[in-house]
Amino acid sequence: MGRKFNNLLLEFARLHRFLMRVLREAVSPPYEFKEIVRQCYEIGWKSFPLIGLTGFIVGFVFTKQSRPSLEDFGATSWLPALISIAIVRALAPLVTALIASGKVGSQIGAELSSMNVTEQIDAMEVSGTNPFKFLVVSRIIATTIMIPILCFYIAGIGLFGGYLSIIGNDQLSLLSFFTQVFDKIGFVDIFAMTLRAVVFGFTIGFASCYVGYYSSKGTEGVGKAANSAVVASMFTVFIEELLIVQVLSLIS
Amino acid sequence: MSVAENKRSLIVGLFALIGLVILIAGILVLGTQQNKFSKNLIVKTYFHDVKGLKVGNNVWFSGVKVGIIKEIAFEDVENVRVVMSIQEKDSQFIRKDVVATLGSDGLIGNAIISLVGGTAANPEIQDGDVIKSGASGGMDQMIGLLQENGANLTVITQNFAKLSQQMVEGKGTIGALLTDDAIATNLKSSVVSLNSVMTDANKAVNNLVTLTGKLNNNQGLIHDLTTDTEVFASLRESAAQLQGVTQTANALMENLNKTSARLNDKDNALGVLTNDAEAANEIRQILKNLNTSTEKLDVNMEALQSNFLLRGYFKKKAKEAEKESKDAVSK
């Protein structure tokens, strides 16, 4: 019991050291721009089809499911407002983060742990490249940039999915739809969405890299790292979501 | 840098750019809708009760969104200060005497401020103006209406009281009617006269009924006149004949007229006879002469009777006359 608690504290200390190192290395030259762009391509562009489709389905289905409840009040004309609040305030960053955790998190975890297992990281260090900057920092920066970008796409696609669902039942022009959508949200909501996406992006990158970088040796370590990268990312995202909602409800 | 890497950078750049464009477009649309980028006027008003109005709610003028609520705060114990920002482009249609009322954009919709009224004579609203607030619709309005009704009812009952007082005192027509005995007597006699008139009228009507009944019977001249076509035809014939007769009579009268006119003239025998005095005298002379002539003739004739030549004849005649008279007696 005491040892477990001890291990937990050690783990936290290691996390803190890792975080400090990431922040320090991120701002200090040389910058690995080429590697960052490559990671952006892998993380952002490669996961866009999956995440975009998910966003569309979420918007479409959410609208479809909300309709009966609003119909009871004869308030189906409020669907755009409902969708806008739901997607911009909650769903867009969260859905992006969750899908990205699965797609990107597992990828990063598996990549880094397999490099660790095959001792490529050590080889890099020998060849004079800073493996931490090249592998970890570039990935974390890439997720921190790309998750918000994906989140904006999701918001747009999700709203469009909602619109398609609405016009299945009602007559509504796209202009009228977006007027109503933006009628119910404020700058705070857009700011909150961006902030969450940035935080989630950083979290996914950080958790996945940490798990991959410190994976146990052996081939089973790779699978384990991939798995725990996803679990850790998702779990942390939800915890952060909870905290951010609390803070934002104080602001707005 | 390899071609593949170049392509990769391009895709990433484009991807990120579009994502940011979505964000910026969202911000711009939102800002435009919430008047963040347009020039705005700040206008204040005070309410006793804002009924759940919130910052960011819409301000409507004639049902069109012209601005939003910027700030809601207590001014003093009785008043809540509501600061509105109104788009400058719409402000030229809003006048200084506009009244802010609380409303809602639907049955269960958001609270809004609705600007009502404003006359063209007043200058347009300007930055920093304080506008009046008015009673809102709904319950308040209904209660206001009820109060008005109550006041009206009071006035009406007061008037009725005055009216009934005057009636009791015998003022005015109705009062006189109710209280003056002379009028009552007159009215009574009028009614009696009316009664007899009505009786007569009744009789007249009865007679009329009889008459019309007779008319409807298949008897009488009027019935024949109104129903029998033969009678009418013969009547028409008679009338035609009558016309002929009158025409003849007319001609006769004309002739008579002519004749009598001639009598008046002197250029014919009758005219001379009737009109000429000289002729009359001559005629008179002639008659005188005729008279003397006949006298002399008479004497001559008597002398002739005594003449022998003729005496026998007269004797014979006397005898015959005597004989005849005898026969008459014997018979």
Automatic annotation (TrEMBL), chain A:
Name of the protein in question: Phospholipid/cholesterol/gamma-HCH transport system permease protein
Transmembrane segments: 43-63, 78-100, 140-166, 186-213, 225-251
A GO MF term: phospholipid transporter activity
PANTHER family referenced in this protein's UniProt entry, alphabetically: ABC TRANSPORTER PERMEASE PROTEIN-RELATED (PTHR30188), PROTEIN TRIGALACTOSYLDIACYLGLYCEROL 1, CHLOROPLASTIC (PTHR30188:SF4)
Keywords: Membrane, Transmembrane, Transmembrane helix
Highest taxon above the source species: Bacteria
Source organism: Sphingobacterium yanglingense
Keyword Transmembrane helix included in the entry's annotation: yes
A Pfam family matched in the record: MlaE
GO CC entries: ATP-binding cassette (ABC) transporter complex
From TrEMBL, chain B:
Boundaries of every Mce/MlaD domain copy: 42-117
Signal peptide start-end: none
Transmembrane segments: 12-31
InterPro entries according to UniProt: Mce/MlaD (IPR003399), MlaD_Phospholipid_Transporter (IPR052336)
Pfam family, one: MlaD
Keywords: Membrane, Transmembrane, Transmembrane helix
Keyword Repressor annotated: no
Protein name, UniProt field: Phospholipid/cholesterol/gamma-HCH transport system substrate-binding protein
